[in-house]
Description:
The chain has helices at residues 18-22, 65-74, 76-96, 111-114, 132-135, 165-170, 175-182, 186-195, and strands spanning 5-9, 26-30, 50-53, 100-106, 119-121, 144-149. By secondary structure, the protein is of the alpha/beta class. A 6-stranded mixed sheet has the order 2-1-3-4-6-5, covered by helices on one side. The chain starts with a strand and ends with a helix.
Amino acid sequence: MKTKAILSLCDYSGRWSQPYRDAGYMVFQFDLKNGHDVRMIEKLDCKIHGILAAPPCTEFAVAGARWWKQKEEEQPQLLRDNLAIVDACLRSVVVYEPKWWVLENPVSRLQKWIGKKRYSFQPHDFAGWLPEDEQYDEQYTKETWLWGDFNEPEENSLPPVQGSKMWAKYGGKSEKTKEMRSMTPKGFALAFFNANP
């Protein structure tokens, strides 16, 4: 049987695509921080089975709403550049016609450009799929929206005893805190893989 290929876009950590990698899929992982601008990737010469896309949320997340107007007046190219990244992710869906595809962003004004979300979740919704010693790390809230054509993952929820951990522990504008906030929850990644093999 031929190895299935997954295209993972805007994927610096590789956490979302890790279950596919662990299962023996060929994963093409692209992120600007790894030297790959998704807007400039040339077509791969292979059949793509599924596409994971997590474009940067800085210009879209409602957490930054109070700065949108000022930023758009002072640096209008920021929004255009980020929309171009989203467009590149969606272009890959048209080019490869995968069996399934998904695009992720936190609660976001992105729906203004690409329509209503299809699904939303909190990290604690999937914490129960993890080994017991890893569950507590994902018992927090951080609403995330998904667009695309995919099977919805099966939830295995645990109480969100850590509350809004990302805001409390990783607030701020440093690259490190941004990276921590953008990490895909492991429980969700596993559940998504199980629903979309």
